[in-house]
Amino acid sequence: MEYASEQEVEKVVPKIRALQESMNGVLFGQSELIDLVIIGLLARGHVLLEGLPGLGKTELVKGLSKSLGLDTKRVQFTPDLLPGDITGNPVLQEVDGHRSFVFQPGPLFTNLVLADEINRASPKTQSALLEAMQERCVTVLGETHSLPAPFFVLATQNPIELEGTYPLPEAQLDRFLFKLEVTRNSAGTLEQIVMMRELGQEPVVEQAMQPEEFTEILEVVRKVYLPDVVANYIARLVTATHPGESEAAQHLKFGSSPRAALSLASAAKARALMHERPNASFEDVKSIAAAVLRHRVLLDYSAQVDGVTVNEVIEQIVDEVPYQTQETPKTLKKTGV
């Protein structure tokens, strides 16, 4: 396999910096959240944003689409939304004097889908996204249709405590690379918003790169080197989320799937590139562990009664698992670069 060279990394990093600068002008005081969203996209993953209404989740996604110049469609998820409303439906049309069903693509046929308030739709409609998010295609009446490349779902959801929400199925949660929590702004940030924005006025977003430049960055991310020791650390970290495998996992009913390990690897490589390195490191994995794992584990009843949170359990697991063990290979950097 060909690995990314330092020259390739140096070439694409300025474009990533331009994207970060553009997005920090959309959402004030949320640089860490913005970096994680960008890492999620660079890792070719889908991102779930959770937070109370009005915190800027939708504006963040809309700003991303403008910065990247990608074709974007927005779906407002409501209780009456049907699966065909997002995947598309066959429509009876007359072609060459004969009537036949012709497939009419739905809003999923785009590069970036904004699934707004995804947990307000019924579980049946939520499940219609499963095939699209995993296989980048949809099947309607036995016929499979490929989605455009690249394809991302950036979904927003309100906390489950709010009225009119349905919990996302575990199978669909597992399709999201990251679950990110959008928190409220500080008083200083609110002052900045009041001074620089008006109610109902959208921020002006500069396009940071062309779509083909974004595709080039995705290819460089794929070539970032993942050392054996980091892969071993990822495997042990995911294993530690299962009951009986670590002390912290005693609070969990279920652990993470193998898809969590693949997600950690992809996101670690994306973060390494963002930090101008051709090699993923332990620190890359540790920094994105909570975002990858928090929606892939399930607290048991006793933990919920005791007030233990998922974030606390993930933090304990990360603290418990050492970077290396005596059996771990010592190779950290690739050769020939």
From TrEMBL:
Location of the AAA+ ATPase domain: 43-186
Cross-referenced CDD domains: AAA (cd00009)
InterPro entries linked to this entry: AAA+_ATPase (IPR003593), ATPase_AAA-3 (IPR011703), CbbQ/NirQ/NorQ/GpvN (IPR050764), ChlI/MoxR_AAA_lid (IPR041628), P-loop_NTPase (IPR027417)
Gene3D superfamilies per the UniProt record, alphabetical: Magnesium chelatase subunit I, C-Terminal domain, P-loop containing nucleotide triphosphate hydrolases
PANTHER family with a match to the protein in the record: MAGNESIUM-CHELATASE SUBUNIT CHLD, MOXR FAMILY PROTEIN
Protein name as it appears in the record: AAA family ATPase
Source organism of this protein record: Rubritalea tangerina
